[in-house]
Amino acid sequence: xxxxxxxxxxxxxxxxxxxxxxxxxxxxxxxxxxxxxxxxxxxxxxxxxxxxxxxxxxxxxxxxxxxxxxxxxxxxxxxxxxxxxxxxxxxxxxxxxxxxxxxxxxxxxxxxxxxxxxxxxxxxxxxxxxxxxxxxxxxxxxxxxxxxxxxxxxxx
Length: 156
Description:
It contains 4 helices and 2 strands. It is mostly helical.
């Protein structure tokens, strides 16, 4: 027998562990371009394209170093376009993700990869004056004067 006022139903579950999906505070559509994050993504796309063109226009004396620079430039460029498209086309409102945190992680990871690529490109540029010996009679520098200037621009 149950005491007076008691029911045989269990109490409702605690609602504390169940929280609503995170709210998107970054705007969708063209308004994303007016935010700091949108401007940074746009600059990543712009400068990634420039680095891609500059590295591709030089001879590649050290394929391991400049191959990584090219990989970072192309991959970051592509992922920046995808990330920007998520906000431009309103997909951010359909997916329950903490977009502020995702934005922070995306820019942080992109910075780390671009900084590593910068170091490798600067290392390639600094080897400009070292000769590359093809045979016993001829010596040629690793980068020509034109390629040296392009490599400096890509490093910057």
